[in-house]
UniProtKB/TrEMBL annotation:
Reactions it catalyzes: D-glyceraldehyde 3-phosphate + pyruvate + H(+) = 1-deoxy-D-xylulose 5-phosphate + CO2
Cofactor note: Binds 1 Mg(2+) ion per subunit. Binds 1 thiamine pyrophosphate per subunit.
EC number: 2.2.1.7
Annotated ranges, domain Transketolase-like pyrimidine-binding: 318-483
Species this chain originates from: Microbacterium psychrotolerans
Residues given in the record as thiamine diphosphate binding sites: H73, S113, H114, A115, G146, A147, N175, Y287, E369
Binding site for Mg(2+): D145, N175
Family designation: Belongs to the transketolase family. DXPS subfamily.
Protein name (record): 1-deoxy-D-xylulose-5-phosphate synthase
Listed Pfam families: DXP_synthase_N, Transket_pyr, Transketolase_C
Underlying gene: dxs
Amino acid sequence: MSLLSSITGPRDLDGLTTDQLEQLASEVRGFLVENVARTGGHLGPNLGVVELTIALHRVFDSPNDPMIFDTGHQSYVHKLLTGRQDFTNLRARNGLAGYPQRSESAHDVVESSHASSSLSWADGVSRALTRTGRKDRHVVAVVGDGALTGGMTWEALNNISDDNDRNLVIVVNDNGRSYAPTIGGMARYLNRVRTAESYRTLHRGSDDLFRKLGPAARAVYRGVRGGTHGFLSRFTNNAALYSNLDIKYLGPVDGHDLPTLIETLELAKSYGAPVIVHAITEKGRGYAPALEDEADQFHAVGKIDPITGESLGATGGLAWTDVFADELVCVGDARDDVIAMTAAMLRPTGLLPFAQRFPDRVYDVGIAEQHAVASAAGLAFGGLHPVVAIYATFMNRAFDQVLMDVALHRAGVTFVLDRAGVTGPDGPSHHGIWDLAMLQLVPNIRIAVPRDGERLREELQEAVAVDDGPTVIRFPKGVVSPELPALERLDDGVDVLVRSDAHDVLLVGIGPMAHIAVDVAERLRAQGIGATVVDPRWAVPVQPSVVDLAASHRLVITIEDGIRVGGIGTRVRQVLREAGVDTAVDELGVPDEFIDHASREQILEDAGLTAAKIAQDVVAQVLGTRIPVARGAQSGDPTPTGQIPTLPDLARSRDDRR
């Protein structure tokens, strides 16, 4: 029986010897490689925190001592040690989430996987425990060093130092990387500490000395440990950084040396005040393919060969991100005023080819979306055109800057939102379903949603030509949709994809959902219902031709993979009412709720966003009592004039149904 299989909860660690803990760490690494290779997931970050997580659960009493992970992708080992060892369906429906999730365990506190928020959580939880008479409990926040590039972290540190009478331990998991290598002044500072030979030599010597003294010297060890760390901290200037914040500092310590980690965490636990433990770890530790991956050390992988690390997933074709990456280089070739920006996601958002071609025209600001957007406004003021590439879910964090810094100042900034819409296995905090509803509130904004790769190229070129306000291009995760040519492009840029002589239903397909709309139209045609399908291309503002087409149809159906409350469909309805068009509108989209991890296909099916379900519902409406239908659509004959109900007729029919 393996040691890992005997661990049903953190307190099972208490009776293990140092050698057994080391064996457990080895088993955990083997488990992670074997299982994540089969399902995909965040492998590199978790291989790097094996010893650290074991030490944390050995010293602290979760869930009595709440543990908060920032970001949550480094929580796989935490799941294993808290009794969740069935990784069969990791990140799939009915399987474990890829991030902490309260419904799984009382040991999970914060579900959001957006970086840099954990210290604010820890500050609040520790204050609450102190004020409610539970001062003996500890709060532990595990912060990846990349999170230190986010402004919230420093806001929290400033406030944490304002109240020292509480048990709060902040563990900085310093592996020199967020997704890719961590950037910025803080990263350079930590790197100097991490690589200082003078520290490493002195640190190793002190540890060896006290270990040789044996158990009898434990009291002496604990007594001088703080002094040793204090001396080393001053020697490496770390104390100068944190002492100004009035927060005690221990480290740096080897994040893979279990005895040292345990001793250091015990000392931190005994302080009775906020303390920072600086642990130096290695992302991808113990797995050669990850360590050889210079790009991101297997930060997140699909299905791989556990021996070689080679991908086993089908390529499936060109990704949306790749199309954007290629076209942005073309834009850069044509315009030397175009600057690319991102927030610690250079490679994932497709900016690497641009950076390789134009290394002095790319800014990676770290995990600091708010700063990126406000800085982009400044770049635009200075005569440049920034293209800010961010995951759609992370755009939520910079809404105020889009509104007040970019839009208010009519700054020509293009936002490219990758992973927009339903993303699937990463769960609630990573779905990009809020951007359409959120951003269309911004005055003078223009939002494009390409339906295929060629439209992405077109719309990016159109977006960077706008210099009097923000533009947005958003596209989903995964392989780009097949090319879907238009029958006709109207004067305002709207593409007509399907026409019918019978004007029963107007289907407005937003971006990739246009493919579903075309499928719906074909199903309706088989039922004798005429449907026109349009792709607005620029979903915001609503184009005049959409209004005109809606006026000549009996029913408008909008289809989007963002939340339907306040989405594009809602805007279409409002614009039609303002124009005096009384055509009924059904807005189809994702429900306004947090959506659990599952495949994109499963989630769209749950939301009723499949061609079969949409067509079934439309048929029920049109052939039922709701909307009169003009016969003749199936044969393609023009609709008999006398069978077209007027707007007052439709209004009366709706009144009758009430």
